[in-house]
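FW: tagging you since you asked about this chain on Friday. Here's the raw sequence from the shared folder, copied in full. Didn't touch anything.
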Amino acid sequence: MLVHIADSGTPRLRAADDFGSLSVRAEASAPGWETLSRTLRAAGAGEVAGAHAWLDVAWLRAAAGDRDAGWHDRFAAMLGHAEAHGWLSADGRRVRAHVDWGRAGRKADTE
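HL: got it, structure written out here
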């Protein structure tokens, strides 16, 4: 799954059927962790903590649109995998995602 944020600042879910990875691609002209966190919070999509985005599970489900039971089963399995690796919040409401900055998809290490 990919949460794409163009310069317009609105998060959009892409690759909703790809359960093998979860990332945020921020194509900001001036990338920054605080700006990204504000953008995610404003959309109800999550927030930034450390060098990762913590995405709202309910937002991901809603952004995926109308999906069949098989999709929901695979999504639940992805969350189970995330939980086993410590990538799911204790309350199960947020899941950790990698952040890539810019169109080239460069992984973000620092601000």
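FW: The chain has three helices and seven strands.
HL: agreed, and The radius of gyration is 13 Å.
FW: great, closing this out.
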